[in-house]
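Colleagues,

For the teaching module next term, I've prepared a clean inverse folding example: a structure given as tokens, and then the sequence designed for it. I'd like students to try predicting residues themselves before seeing the answer, so please don't circulate the second half yet.
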């Protein structure tokens, strides 16, 4: 028996014409609120109040930022503004330490003679040549 595996499951179904259920609810609510504003207020004031409502409704229904619906962006902004914040910083020292000059060590005090230094340099050169890829 063959079963059909659903494809495109992240795409919402279009229920009301070209609108998804969410889009239809946003648009219907916005149109209803705009109609109430225009009918109950004088025409000019109603239109002035209905214009931002219509823009907000259109943004909720259709506008996407980085492929995320506008309502998710609004929710994230709301949670950010009401949420607690933790501020961390690294306290810097008030004094700046000046670099200290260091004298080079005397090879004779370390027990190194000229011949020992040459042998050491030669052995390091040989090891360096063996470790480098050809």
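(Answer key — instructors only)
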């Amino acid at each position: 028996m063959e079963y059909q595996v659903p494809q495109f499951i992240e795409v919402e179904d279009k229920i009301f014409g070209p609108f998804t259920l969410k889009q239809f609810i946003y648009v219907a609510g916005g149109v209803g609120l705009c109609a109430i504003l225009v009918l109950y207020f004088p025409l000019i004031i109603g239109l002035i109040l209905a214009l931002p409502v219509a823009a907000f409704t259109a943004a909720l229904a259709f506008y996407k930022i980085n492929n995320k619906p506008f309502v998710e962006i609004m929710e994230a902004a709301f949670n950010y503004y009401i949420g607690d914040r933790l501020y961390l910083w690294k306290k810097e020292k008030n004094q700046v330490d000046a670099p200290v000059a260091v004298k080079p060590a005397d090879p004779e005090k370390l027990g190194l003679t000229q011949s020992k230094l040459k042998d050491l340099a030669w052995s390091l050169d040989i090891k360096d040549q063996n470790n480098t890829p050809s």
